[in-house]
Amino acid sequence: MTVDFEPCTGPTHFELTLPDDVRFRFGPAGGDEDYREVFSLLEALDEGMREVLAEDGRITVHCRAVLRSMVVHPVDSHPRAFREAGRLAARKALEQVFGAS
């Protein structure tokens, strides 16, 4: 997974976005079930990032996370793994901005 963090201003403190030209590729079955699975993983990714950005109870860094790439594996992709990936991505972004803590 590749996520770019960008500063943002305005009333939104944090948002996870997809590029305008996002494309989904599914296996031969495809369909609504695939979309539901992908969006539940995106929700878990968002939750993980928010947990790290709001560790003191509020989001203090105003930013936008742009998801550039993501691979879903039939066995290893589940919400818990994506939540942890979101936490890791946010921690790394904060380290790059503020240095290691």
Can you give a write-up of this model?
The chain has helices at 32-53, 79-98, and strands at residues 2-7, 14-17, 63-69. The longest helix is centred in the middle third of the chain and has 22 residues, at 32-53. It has two helices and three strands; from the N terminus they run ββαβα. 42% of the residues lie in helices and 17% in strands. The chain is globular and about 45 Å long. With 101 residues, it is an alpha+beta fold. The protein has a three-stranded mixed beta sheet with strand order 1-3-2, with no helix packed on it. It starts with a strand and ends with a helix. Strand 2, helix 1 and strand 3 (63-69) form a beta-alpha-beta unit. The mean pLDDT is 88.
In short:
The chain is α+β, with helices and mostly antiparallel strands and 101 residues long. The protein has helices at 32-53, 79-98, and strands at residues 2-7, 14-17, 63-69.
